[in-house]
Automatic annotation (TrEMBL):
Taxonomic placement: Bacteria, Bacillati, Actinomycetota, Actinomycetes, Micrococcales
Entries under Gene3D superfamilies matching the protein: 3.40.50.880, Glycosidases
Species this chain originates from: Ruania alba
UniProt-recorded name of the protein: Beta-galactosidase GanA
Amino acid sequence: MPANEPWYRTSRRWGQTNLVEIDPERYDDAWWRRYWRDTRIDGVIVNAGGIVAYYPSEFELHHRAVGISEQNDLYGRIVASARDEGLAVVARMDSNRVAEDFFIAHPEWMARDADGEPYRAADKWITCVNSGYYNDYLLQVLAEITRRSAPDGFADNSWAGLPRDRICYCENCARIFREAKGSPLPAQIDWSDPTYRDWVRWNYDRRVEIWELNNKATQAAGGEHCIWMGMLSGDQKHAANRFNDQRRILRGSPFAMLDHQFRWFGESFHQNAEAGKRIHELVGWDAVMPESMPMYSLGRPAFRVAAMPKAEAQLWSANGFAGGIQPWWHHIGSHHEDRRQYSTAPEIFQWHEKNEDVLFDRTPVADVGVVWSTDNTDFFGRDQIEERTASPYRGAITALVQAGLTYVPVHADDIHTTASRFSVLLLPNVGAMGDAQLEAVREFHAAGGSVVATGETSLFTEDGERRDDYGLADVLGVTAGESTHGDWRGTDVNMETAGNHTYLRLLPARNSDGGGTDVKVRRPARHSALDGFDDTDIVPFGGYLRESRVLDGFETLATFIPRFPIYPPETSWMSTPETSIPALVVSERGESRTVMVLADLDRCGDRDQQPDARALLARVVRWAIGEESKVSAKTPGGVAVNAYAQPGRTIVHLTNSLATTNLAARQDHLYPVGPIEVRITRPEPASAVKSAALRVAEAAATAKEDGDAIVVTVDVVKAHEVVVIDWA
Ligand SMILES: [Zn+2]
């Protein structure tokens, strides 16, 4: 890389000793410098100020850590050591709460509820993002830190203020909102009230403003490369809760720091690759994007000073690398009695350093673009993001991963510029879509792209208001009715009521002889989108479906079978074995294939972990891809495939995503998975394989020719393997 590149381009591995208040009296500088070297980091994140100051700040109300004085400037000492080691320095802030003395001095800067009472968290007071605390005080603190120590940049932990479930009624908010929107603040959270929706959008705007305001301040004080960054979550729900429109925020940022330290309940490790790819699409694939990785036992419950199981950290980081994430170790406090936490990072970071040539300067290669958007999360998800939007999205991703398919998340506003990279766009219950987004999907389809949509995709506007019909009715071949079946909010698993005991019927019938053994019976062929389901006419469903009418020229491949009793078993027979209610509708015109999955197979695949739901969804996506898959894999399950291109080179990450513990951060063992057969279509203008290598096993691989493609078999993956093909 060129020597004159700014720090945020060249600093690829990061470390953070997240100081606690007693650290000024016990920090062991020599020990940490050795650890920096062992872990090959290029930059450190050092606690500077905010809630607690680790330097002798001139601001009287800037609460100092224990022992901080003119003679003991811990922050300053660590910065000096880092400079001595040739490391970049990011000064860390954590600024949204203040102690009592601050509250008494500046009551006008506090966030307040409808009764005018200040919002509190534990023994602190929460400051308002529209107050002088953000507009004036913090900017002065940033300037002071720059004057004292000239850090390369800044990061802030809790920069985004109150979450969306709490409205601030302080005088600043009331005045500024009225000036901007012409009305008083919304009286309560009510998604059907346009004023509340205005308030939500106004809050998003303010976070973008804060980002720009802080950058202006740090760049003015420290030069053009002294950038400020708020920590960003890799979780869509969390980002929405904090009004982080990452697409807008990252448009002008050359770097992103992810605070996305662990998977949530029920999630697997491949989610970290998903987050990495989703956010790289926004910040750019040339940007460095480190993610904080706890070396302590995070999860629920969390243990701040106990070691994270090594396997959990290995699997989370390996899946992060597969999504273009860079490593950043994170310890809480500078002194530890559980020293096992120091044994995890060196191996991970040393591998990363050794393999930089295949981890940077690359672009993703995938067959499927999976559509998401902030508006969909907010205005369709509303107060039920988990059930309405997060679960279907996660279910769709998991279905693709389990089937060995490759995907990249695509923001709905970027379809018009990026979708041509994919042969299929998958829209997992993207209910809220604006007209421009609909038009972009239509153009993609008209240009020969294939579209797979699920659930109630396109039935609502960007504000979440119901449209008369699916906005993509013409593309998907269905027109919306009013009746619905099942419940998207959850599943009635009571044996006595069995509200979820529903099925889908695959057409035409092949097994209606009900288990007859006469193999000479001629069974009708099915559409190839249903390949793999030959031996059944039904699949379990249990989900939600809106009755819709199928347009001419489109074919129904599956219908809905309404509920019938589970208990007692004598009653368990289909009273209505057949209906004409469509569940799965396809069409093929030229190169374009469309699938409307009216049944919410994505949500069922996630919530109910239903293997048939995942397999059927993945199968129709596979059919929509057609014969020309760029990269795919046959796996025994539990391995995610992610691929990248460099000039003359294809890079395929195979990551173990097998979580044997559903609780986050509790995986204490690596279970090797294999064999995995990777199929790579030869990219133009490559002719033959020059070399094939496995970067984790540090061995050569065998690439077998298979028509336009090559096939590489990897016997076993522990945490991960990276297959690198150099083309002749
Ligand atoms: Zn306020």
